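On clarity, I found the account of how folds are encoded harder to follow than it need be. Since the whole study asks how a given chain folds, the encoding of that fold should be made plain. For illustration, here is how one protein appears when written out as sequence plus structure tokens:
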Amino acid sequence: MGCSGGLGTHDWALASKNAGFSFLTCPVMIGYLAVPYKNRPIDPETGKQYEDEVLMPGVKYYHDPILQNLSDSIYPRRLENTKDLIVDE
């Protein structure tokens, strides 16, 4: 069973797993609010990690897709938590 959405400041990967969901679809940039600042990708406009202010609802990047390459969104990415968004084995 899957879910679309459910992202935010909380550990949404762990929460969805604990709720019984086996996958989430359509991850968007607001999901990075749950990722520690040091593990976030670089904002090309500032050269620094994405700040909370540009990821919040209604602001610049919040609904942009996390996965930039189509090939990254075809296969499931198994995440244990949101410490980073790197696939966990």
About this structure: Strands lie at 2-4, 23-25. The chain has one domain: 2-74. The mean pLDDT is 84. The helical segments are 12-18, 52-55, 70-74.
